[in-house]
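Progress against Task 2.4 (sequence-to-structure conversion) is shown through the following example record, which the project officer requested during the mid-term review.
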Amino acid sequence: MRYVTLNIDPSDAHETFDELRQVQVDDEVIATYEEIYDLNPLDDGTAVELVRLTGDTERFARITSDLGDVSVIPTSETGFVYIHLNPESLDTALIDIIDTHKITVDWPVRYTDRGFQLTLLGEDISLQHVVADLSEIVDVTVEKTGDYHPRMRDPAWHLTDRQIEVVRAAINEGYYDLPRGLVSVTSRLNSNSREVQSPNISERPKQG
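Structure tokens generated for the chain above:
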């Protein structure tokens, strides 16, 4: 099975995508869309989506539901809400294209500052048709493609053996502990050459 990761940007010259993903009231941003975990079309033409937001989700639910044609139901998980809505033309077109070519969405769909980041799974020819069809209605950029592996979203999947060794040593030395003695830990990591030699920049663990 193959995969393709796309960036879909529905914004225009009047509004950036970063502005599109924000919910504002009186110029105040009360919530920001981060990820879509599911989108299910219903027989009546409406749809239900599971979305993760940052911000004031309770206020978002109250204000959005007051619009009349949208229902928002907060979940027990912080930031997650179900939204019952009338899908926009792009949502409908995307659903139709996915159904037509029998491909699968690798959820979640992520909101970025450049657009929706969407990963699709299927046969190579089907994915090519999807990209071509989407390109006719919206700005699409292919970010990466290749053979699909279920662990691809696991950050460790993309590390080399050497990088994994560096991360393990850093964990054992307390590099990620809070609070952490950064100077002393770094000194011990670099001085203990028999366990870990000083890594190249590309091998250094990324600290969040």
